[in-house]
Amino acid sequence: MLKAPRSKALVILVIAAIVGLATSALAADPPAKKLLRIRLSGPVLESPDNPAGLFALLGNQQPPRSLHHWLKSIRDAQNDSSVRGILLIIEDAELSLAQAEELSRALGEFRGKGKPVHTFMDYGTNVSYALAAASSDHITLAENSELALFGLYAEAMYFKGLLDKIGVQADMLHCGAYKSALEPFTRTEPSKEAAENINWLLDGIYARWIEMIAKGRNLSPDVVRQAIDNGPIPAEAALKARLVDDVSSFEAFRKRVSKEFGPNVEVMKRYSKDVTEEIDFNNPFAMFSLIGSMMKGLAEPTDPGIGLIYIDGGIMVGRSDTDPFSGDSVAGSTTIRGALQQALDDEKIRAVVVRVNSPGGSAIASDIIYDAARRLGAAKPLFVSMGSVAGSGGYYVSIPGDTIYAEASTITGSIGVVGGKLVWKNLFEEKLGITSTEFTRGQRAGLFSPNRAWSDDERAYMQEYMDRVYVQFKGRVSDSRGERLKKNLEDIAGGRVYTGQQALELGLVDKIGGLREALDAAISKAGLPRDCPVYQLPKASEMEQFLRLLQALSGQSDKRDEFEVSATAVLRGDPLLRAAAPLIQSAAPAKLRDMLRALRGLAILERERVGMFLPVVPDFR
């Protein structure tokens, strides 16, 4: 981390360089009428926009926006009398149904103020169309496009046949009949319990998807089902079926909006209360004024507020990081524990919201986070907001919350434990001609040896250890949820996975809602004004603050961040991941996702042998 004097000097040098380019400026008064444009292209991130780094800044590129960014922008615009409506532009949007639910609820509140939402879709997918249908006063679909409403499709991959061919044995254990996370390595098809689990998830998600479309378009569920069964739906057929309101070009859409709101309305590409004005590089005096106000914005606020902590991605021991293959977040127990401790120690933080979007991971890391959250919850009001997924270890870290919010389509539950290892001896010796000799001291020194399966004694030890972890997991749930559970815990646990709506009916969560609802509840509980500050933890370093300043100074473009790092260049030395890299990188996207999920589970077991993570669940987009 930069030392304070060096970081300040660097800021001054950069600002001086920028000011050196400036020559004159003209400031424009803001128009009386505004429209907020929300452009959904690419992924909608769970955690807030991090500084994109100097690569993105120097290239004047905008990273994908976060869900929190859009929710805040919508609420700020909702309360701004100069904002008359929203233009929702849906391109190649990548978001989960849970994110669509949360955005549609925020847009519904915006519409409740008498402000319309007009949507233009280049192309409609299952989830992006559900968002448009549930959120819009008027939907325009591009000419010659279609609504690709295919229904739900789930495919689970199984690797036992491959492992048999190459001579690798999967020696796996589980606690809970429905805890099927490691079945892909021991079976060629799903167990009865796993198939049952997938089917009740699909039933819940399908019902919620139909409901969003039917209510939003004022159609009966049967009509929506029939349309889906006849999909994909060409643009003109979608218009005839009342799934959209118009079929035209984007230029025609712009003209219609201009006619409705008048020619002098300003279309804002971004909006929030703290957004700075566009920089006119021709006026050094305007530059100095703007830079001064921005530097004040970097100062640490002192007003009482709410803490916001993200647990985003697979849960691992250590510091938060990024998955080298997919770029997905990794939630490190050291980082999260530190953030929870900061919230506990900081007197100006009166209540805390923890946003959990995680399929679980390490059992040890999950318990570390649980313990820190429990201590925080004993001292301050603690609310949990579940994202698209908060299962197994993701549910474990959620249960200290006083109130748990989930979307109806959130994937949660999976109370159970898995453990195991892969035995490579036959592959190396019989197939590759590579031999090895083991040297040990201690009766169980070779417990995790990749050269042999567990002995009866070792297997009994591992099962006993996993049983203790499982009993502890259930005990944590029982202690935290208590009388709120609607059924016997044994009938709820066992690795069973639920939607948020199903979890609500069982008492595993408290309310259907998202991040906004959790923040509002925390603010109310703390007795703070609605516009109180929200402090994201852990606190940003000086370098992160500096990059945020640079990002604001550089402006925002409409390009997505195209900077990529080769996965093979950042692998941490895990032989399993290295060996699988060529196969994964050449796989088709759908298969790629399943393979990545399976490998993440194996990577956890390579380090710890016992995990709390979800089975592969339907990827519905």
Task: Write up this protein.
- It contains 24 helices and 23 strands.
- By secondary structure, it is α/β, with parallel strands linked by helices.
- The chain has a domain at 155-223 and 302-532 and 588-621: 2-enoyl-CoA Hydratase, Chain A, domain 1 (Alpha-Beta Complex), CATH 3.90.226.
- Strands 10, 14, 16, 17, 18, 20, 21 and 22 form an 8-stranded mixed β-sheet that branches.
- Helix 4 packs parallel to helix 5 and helix 5 (126-135) runs parallel beside helix 8.
- The model is unreliable at 19-28, 50-61, 274-279 and 554-588 (pLDDT under 50).
What's the CATH topology name of the domain at 155-223 and 302-532 and 588-621? 2-enoyl-CoA Hydratase, Chain A, domain 1
Rg estimate, integer Å: 26 Å
In whole angstroms, the N-to-C terminal distance is 39 Å
| Shape estimate | globular
β-strand amount:
15-25%
The CATH superfamily of the domain at 155-223 and 302-532 and 588-621 appears as 2-enoyl-CoA Hydratase, Chain A, domain 1
Gross CATH architecture of the domain at 155-223 and 302-532 and 588-621: Alpha-Beta Complex
What's the helical proportion of residues?
40-55%
Number of helices: 24
SS class: alpha/beta
The low-confidence parts are: 19-28, 50-61, 274-279, 554-588
Total strands: the figure is 23
The description of the largest β-sheet is:
8 strands, mixed
Name of the level-1 CATH class of the domain at 155-223 and 302-532 and 588-621: Alpha Beta
User: What is the typical, i.e. mean, pLDDT?
Assistant: 83
